[in-house]
Task: inverse folding
């Protein structure tokens, strides 16, 4: 029996890594479902057992196999037959595919622990994405987690072992990460908490504009005029309404912290790519949302998912996209 060639062994090893990455990913995805549902409610991730939302029956371990259990049960509870949302399976599959993609993009032999750290970072992004969709808020604990993973990644990049570096950063370093941490998050902070509130108060707030008109009419109206009292009442109503209004910000603090963590993890080029993708796709979605909404309700929507998609694209091809764009302006 002839021994396998080195090339064949490397191929087998690579396939095994890919299979393990996907299986580990869907397993982590099952835990992410728990995080997405329980963290916003302040529930424990460990003590409470998984149960059917309809009948309350505790789900058996053999019914908790990621993806497979949902398919076998055809998306129904074994006890009561109630439908189980396919989102659980989708998140598990998505996490598995993301982990697989990371290990295909970043070879373990070249980058060491970097693909593993990036998978942990992407897991945090998935949780933040779906939490923002559900509640329009991001859990502080998950934001801190992503920041710690990014910081730990840079720490590990300085650790040397007998075979070389424990972790090799692709196309970035600590300096690039620190600049990336600020290059998008700082402008978002200024736009969100300085420029947007001022612009809103001066130009966009209809109540303030109406109040300004009422005050102008009061100056032109005599106090003895019968309409003057109506103007005074209207002025008081508008002032009370404006006082009760929550402050208007362009971006949430969660969005800003998310981009800071993303910048630290991925560097300048990937973070700028992420911001551009998020702003463009978010703007298109906002215009579509405004056009299809017939009722005069708030057009506010979660911006976090667009940032997460942007960071995911940035993690895989962000640097290449920026280099291609800059290359268009290079004169041969």
Result:
């Amino acid at each position: 029996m002839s021994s396998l060639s080195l090339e064949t062994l490397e191929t087998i090893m690579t396939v095994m890594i890919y299979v393990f990455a996907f299986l580990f990913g869907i397993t982590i995805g099952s835990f992410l479902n728990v995080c997405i549902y329980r963290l916003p409610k302040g529930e424990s991730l460990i003590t409470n057992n998984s149960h059917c939302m309809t009948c309350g029956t505790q789900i058996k371990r053999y019914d908790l196999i990621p993806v497979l259990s949902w398919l076998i049960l055809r998306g129904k509870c074994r006890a009561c037959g109630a439908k189980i949302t396919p989102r659980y399976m989708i998140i598990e599959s998505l996490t598995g595919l993301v982990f697989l993609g990371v290990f295909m993009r970043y070879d373990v032999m070249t980058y060491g622990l970097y693909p593993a750290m990036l998978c942990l970072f992407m897991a945090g992004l998935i949780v933040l994405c779906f939490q923002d969709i559900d509640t329009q808020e991001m859990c502080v604990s998950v934001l801190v987690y992503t920041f710690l993973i990014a910081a730990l990644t840079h720490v590990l990049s300085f650790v040397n072992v007998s075979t070389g570096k424990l972790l090799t950063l692709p196309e970035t370093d600590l300096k690039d990460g620190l600049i990336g941490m600020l290059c998008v998050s700082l402008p978002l902070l200024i736009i969100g908490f300085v420029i947007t509130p001022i612009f809103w108060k001066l130009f966009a707030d209809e109540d303030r504009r109406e109040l300004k008109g009422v005050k102008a009419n009061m100056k032109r109206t005599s106090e003895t005029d019968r309409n003057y009292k109506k103007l005074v009442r209207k002025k008081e109503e508008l002032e009370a309404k404006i006082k009760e209004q929550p402050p208007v910000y362009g971006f949430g603090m969660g969005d800003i912290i998310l981009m800071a963590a993303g910048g630290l993890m991925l560097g300048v080029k990937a973070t700028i790519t992420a911001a551009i993708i998020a702003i463009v796709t978010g703007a298109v979605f906002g215009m579509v949302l405004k056009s299809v909404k017939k009722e005069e309700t708030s057009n506010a929507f979660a911006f976090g998912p667009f940032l997460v998609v942007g960071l995911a694209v940035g993690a895989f091809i962000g640097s290449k996209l920026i280099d291609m764009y800059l290359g268009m302006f290079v004169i041969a």
User: Anything to note?
Assistant: Residues 159 and 166 are 6 Å apart (CA to CA).
